[in-house]
């Protein structure tokens, strides 16, 4: 029998890591990227100006009675730490780590009156990921072994960043570009978006996947026109064009998109119920849950099975080892996302740098399953990173 859970602890960390939008000046990820806030000129140049990095990283540690510690990092910072310490910890302490189904159910329904999506489910996800890390460490197995094992020898990655042309040279299977101009910048902005795509198509050749990530910034008409103009340059998919709440808009966009162009979304959706809505309303061709935001591994297993039954691909939003251990085990997750966190998107660096020791990165756009062969998620917290525990219980 496994040792019981002794204590759950929540810490916050600033500066990159799981809150990967929390970067320094001059980073591509904060350079005039279209957002729903871009209709306000004062918030158009920088997403940090309206607070995209306000939360910071949540670190969850779960210590067993034998001293083994599982941990995970996600986005959530101090408010998520409060929820973990003051609310969620009671559903774990004294329990067996194998009770992850009952623990998840109690965390979700115990917070349903104020949670269901967003920050609360980020906190639940962080706890769930730490629990799976603990299970792997106690059983001396990588998490992907606990999920059914690898269905392929290696992961292949597309790269998200401002330089798909450089990503091609690094061996990635595609490049997802941030969309820089939204409806507030009118036809001129739309033309600039298409010009950027045309430039990258010219540099990358005809066969390299190119995608736009629209980060919830558009309306249905703009997204439809962008998609049809982008068709001429072989855009593979248009991602998260609309508000996550606009299921009706996504259903219309999927119908209006050019034949062969994929419509994708889901990184800001949560739980099996949210993804059921996306799939039953036929909103998209690929769902992109973030395992650190959608409810964790326990919930993503349910989401993925639902998608598999409908022939929908699950390509998790990039979340480092937490998505790699999942993707390698799922037939309907044929490739993965890698976010280029180097400021100029010109080199591969660990996605959650500097928070994780031994964080694996793709080599030539690939990562062998055997690179994940360490207990749990196979990473440790970098001791050089200062943890702050704002609340106790
Ligand atoms: C590049 C996008 O604007 C986001 O920053 C990115 O985190 C996310 O949307 C993604 O799909 O990687
Ligand atoms: Mg995205």
From TrEMBL:
Record: active site: 317 (proton acceptor)
Stretches assigned to the Mandelate racemase/muconate lactonizing enzyme C-terminal domain: 155-260
Site (Transition state stabilizer): 337
Binding-site residues, Mg(2+): 213, 239, 267
Cofactor: Mg(2+)
Catalysed reactions, semicolon-separated: L-rhamnonate = 2-dehydro-3-deoxy-L-rhamnonate + H2O
Listed InterPro entries: Enolase-like_C_sf, Enolase-like_N, Enolase_C-like, L-Rhamnon_dehydrat, Mandel_Rmase/mucon_lact_enz_CS, Mandelate_racemase_C, Mandelate_racemase_N_dom, RHMD-like
Site (Increases basicity of active site His): 290
First-tier enzyme category under EC: lyase
EC nos: 4.2.1.90
Record bears the keyword Lyase: yes
Keywords: Lyase, Magnesium, Metal-binding
Subunit architecture: Homooctamer; tetramer of dimers.
Family: Belongs to the mandelate racemase/muconate lactonizing enzyme family. RhamD subfamily.
PANTHER family: ENOLASE SUPERFAMILY, MANDELATE RACEMASE (PTHR13794), MITOCHONDRIAL ENOLASE SUPERFAMILY MEMBER 1 (PTHR13794:SF58)
Role summary: Catalyzes the dehydration of L-rhamnonate to 2-keto-3-deoxy-L-rhamnonate (KDR).
The protein, known as: L-rhamnonate dehydratase
Protein's organism: Nitrospirillum iridis
Gene (name only): rhmD
